[in-house]
Amino acid sequence: MDVVIVEDAAAVAERAAARIAARIQRTPGLVLGLATGSSPLGTYEALAARVRNGELDCSGVSGFALDEYAGIDYGHPESYHAVIRRTVTEPLGLDPARVHVPDGNAADLAEAGADYERMIAEAGGIDVQVLGIGANGHIGFNEPVSSFGSRTRQKTLSPKTREDNARFFDRLEDVPLQSITQGIGTILDAGELLMVAQGAAKADAVAAMIEGPLASRCPASALQLHRNATVIIDRAAAGKLQLIDYYEQVERHRAAPIPVG
After folding, report:
1. Is residue 138 annotated as a catalytic residue, yes or no?
2. Catalytic pick from 127, 136, 189, 192?
3. Any catalytic annotation for residue 67?
4. Partners of residue 245 on adjacent β-strands
5. Quick check: pTM over 0.90?
6. Which of the listed residues 104, 129, 201, 216 has the most CB atoms within 10 Å of its CB?
7. CB-side exposure of 176: number of CA atoms within 13 Å?
């Protein structure tokens, strides 16, 4: 896992956006996995600034959202259909027909999950999956003790996740109890994983993900299994890491030539 520590949330967003923009410029038809929640919003805004300035063309990019609440009206401003449209599709100039969100209103969520898996496969798989991390270590809506081999499926939200997400709703009771989410196995199939995290509230989860044991108690620890995972965090989110000096040494010498002789 490549751990990049920067000064603040703005630097996280800029570093992550630069990485994604470089991939899009090399591969205009990139398939981008889209996290929701607050963590990636700065990254999307930094990408949108590049689009507005004429530095980046995202018109050929396809998108697959990680998750959606079950049973929420897609017209609700906090449905992830609405969030992705508002924060990604429109600002980045993506073709709405090429941006997909799991169907949380399907009569059969198991079938909807299988359909979503097929759509990802038919698109050639996800090239770069953007991820955030929950305070309890969840990725997507894969709550603690989720299987590392899981695929897109229905998942019950934990009390902690519902409490954290209540700030987006009028009251806690309005936060849905169920969701449909890409599984951890689905996430691990992506060619590249790009995790962003900011703030001291994420420090325990970040430490468990990077330095803790590989354990379903922290679903994000599954990133330890991936061949190409990058974690970009600010100093507050890095506050509980024990090997921070090593990560910073790696960053200082990232572009340094290897001495010969």
Report:
1. yes
2. 136
3. yes
4. none
5. yes
6. 129
7. 21
